[in-house]
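Need tokens for this chain, all 200 residues.
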Amino acid sequence: MNIHTIGIDLGKTSLHLVGLSDRGEVVVRKHFSRAQLLRFTANREVHLIGMEACGGSHFLGRALQQQGHEVRLIPAQYVKPYVKTNKSDYIDAEAIAEAVGRPRMRFVPIKSDDQLDLQSLHRVRETGERISAKTVCARGTRCSPAEGQPGPGLKVWLDTLTARTHRNVACVALANKLARMAWAVLATGEAHRAPQLAAV
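Here are the structure tokens for all 200 residues:
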């Protein structure tokens, strides 16, 4: 059996694999655990292996690269146009196999564990900023935007901002500023330093 391209649909506990010949015909459909998949691919010559980019695909991509395979990760939105009929794991794997062989397809680089950790840290920061903004805006007119600030420098900044813009805009700006301050404290490990007042 000559497998030219493999598409792998990743699930929480199992993986679905579809292999295509060099003419694009389906030559294999299999269901595996992660360990079974690595045993299956260990001694096979495959031109190209594709997966949708997600957290687990980076680990599996590195393992397949160690076996000597060329592995490419595709953003999910670029796979969707290749899905031919109703969604199923095998149909998704076939769409991935077809998409990965396209010459102008865009791919995601396979990341190391350190890169994934850093990416997670950035996502936590972004989520914190969004949550802070939503919390402050949800409190809206029930609170003064000046509640709970850490020092007079921030109060002056906020008073100046509220004098020239809408209250809700000031709330969002305050939430973002507080999130950035919290991020700076977490990233540097230093104690918070209140902003300095500019000389007037």
